Amino acid sequence: SMRxxxxxxxxxxxxxxxxxLGILLLGISIGYAILSTPLNINGTSEISSTTWDVHWNNIxxxxxxxxxxxxxxxxxxxxTTATFDITLSTPGDFYEFTIDAVNAGTIDAMIDSITNxxxxxxxxxxxxxxNYLNYTVTYRDGITVAPKHLLxxxxxERYKVRVExxxxxxxxxxxxxxxxxxxxxxxxxxxxxxxxVVRDKNNQIYAFxxxxxxxxxxxxxxxxxxxxxxxxxFSGHNFYLKHMIDDQDRIESSSVGYVLNSTxxxxxxxxxxxxxDTNKTTLINSFGSSNCTIExxxxxxxxxxxxxxxxYDGTVSASDATHMCTVHANKSSECMEM
Length: 338
Hints:
The chain is mainly beta.
């Protein structure tokens, strides 16, 4: 959210304003096949009730947005249209929000087509996206939206919309006059058939890459997505925090990992009672029972250079001579100096 004021070589000091009016459209077309049941004389047929209901819901703005909101993102009443109206004034300004595509019906849906266009101020003349702007609509985890992606009945997919005034531009690329640009992004859902596919998802293992007193509330994760192999030597220590994040940006699970003899192990945290026996077995198998203190509701194990423990209340931790990583019973977590 840093404003760039002096890092560009402006020949003039006036500010350049771009007014962005964005429109998201979710088109619904009912494309399901004819539903029929052959009936014989004296036969009985029961047809279950079915509903088709795909719509937008739950807009959440990025708290770090730096664009000026003329009208914040909203879902228009009684429509499947979401709109926003913002002003970007300085390179680096951006506006970002998430919005849920909800299948509240009983029929599985899939994406039939996607339209992504940019228009001039009149809303009818199609133009190319200016080279000083970034505009993207993706799934929340950054995966590209594509035809045939499945949206099962009673499920939700979260989309991320972002408009940004690029930072890495020079003075010659800046707009010389105030400009109005309109965006139109349309997703058309139809009834799913046998060509529907479950979309790929980004690696959902998150781990802190610095040792600090960091609480893992979702609004303040500050983490980097990594492959599992990239985090087993967490900051040069043989232990680390990791978190599984679901599609709605909630913590699905929190755990402490540690490495012994080049093998990674995981202690599941914040799961009072339920994971204690699993954690206990993990500790005993990795450290050896002779290196563990084993009690009814607590197991503590130690070897040169590393300690780890699990408590029946859901707390797990691992440490060395200088630092410790812990997941608490309430699923909060931290790494700290000892």
